[in-house]
Amino acid sequence: MKEKSLKWTTRILLAVAGVFTMLYFNLPKIHAWEIEIQEVQTAWSENADSEAQMNHLVIKETKTGEEPVKGLRLRIPEGILADDIKISKDDLTQTLKIEIPHTDGSYFQNDPVTGSSDSISGLFYMQGKKTDVIEITLDQVYELDIERDEKYYYFNFVKPHEIYDKIVVIDAGHGGNDPGANRQGIMEKDIDLAILLELKELFENSKENIHVYYTRTDDSNPTHEQRVGLANKVNADLFISIHNNSTKSGRVSSISGTEVMFSKSQEGNFTSENLAALCMEELTLALNSRDRGLIDGDNIYIVKNSEVPVALVEIGFMTNKEELKLLNSKEYQKKAAEALYKAIVRAFEEKEQE
Ligand SMILES: [Zn+2]
After folding, report:
1. What is the pLDDT of residue 111?
2. pTM of the model
3. Contact in structure between 51 and 43 (CB atoms under 8 Å)
């Protein structure tokens, strides 16, 4: 066993560390802490044939007399340039990944991270041959306010609505190995994404002050929990999910048109139904498609679990020959995106009149 693990340590990633909530959830919230390493002799397997060591990271109080750090302060290891540190954030999983060129010894032993754990629910440290990775799991979706000087990186975690007035989450259905409806080799996931990307371009060139989060902008397939979770966690004003329809049997048929699902159980001044109605109006106007009505979508996971006004649009039928051809064209996708864009702008206008 020992031999095997030593052998592997020369080949694969060296050490893995984790910190989990319960350790510091018991401590007073306002405190700032220092993170230091504590070895735990637990073998941790990422997969069957690799073994790495798991270290336990414990957060301690900042030394007295030191200026408390609001977010996190990360010391830049000696000999490493700040620019060589790669920082990335994934809103779907609420993780912040910090990749540091590998230095000898444990980063956490020599260069502790200081700060407050208020926004943090987990911390993971992995030493590799070339790169050491610190992965921080946040308790919510935050925007990062990053500053740095010669010695440190400073991370502040800001709630989206503290910097953005209007927030929308847009979801493209399916993805990855879930193609959704599939006709003649044309997959719904690709059409859903193409429309989302058109919409993304509109928002990028928009003068409207609307910030948009996307559940996917590539061929990935987030879970239903992650999709609706993003809308709930950023406390979006609106949540729109883009889909395309097919008949129950999946056979070619004359059935065509647009359907929009909403959550009947939602209450408030501007409801899911209000948003769905705007989407329907704009889509049918722009596409000249048949209005098949608003549909109670509370049997659909992301609709039912949305805590914010939600509309799931089924733009057209992929089982209809003519509509499939249209849906697969860039021109039609663009029109659909423009219609959704207008619906979103109108939704904010209506919300403001509340
Ligand atoms: Zn779908």
Report:
1. 59
2. 0.81
3. yes
